[in-house]
Amino acid sequence: MKMVIVSSREFRANQRKYFDLARTNDVVITSRMHGSYRLVPISEDDTLISESVLEDKIKRGIEEYNNGKVYRMAESENVQQFLGRMLSED
After folding, report:
1. What is the C-alpha to C-alpha distance for residues 71 and 69, in angstroms, rounded to an integer?
2. Averaged pLDDT of the chain
């Protein structure tokens, strides 16, 4: 994988080209006023969540754990059975 460094002006003029390049290369966009940015494609496996939303989810999970709202997998269950039981209990 090679790194392509491009000015913000060049990026604006040829966005499609650099979006395509970002699929297989590191693309860095530089700006005198705003610094440098790395262009990274988002995949289906990526999760985008704000820090405050993530913190709220973690706090809620800790509260649920402390209140005993937990699921335990039985020794006789496989993963599919366990997940099915969890979903049916909600």
Report:
1. 7
2. 93
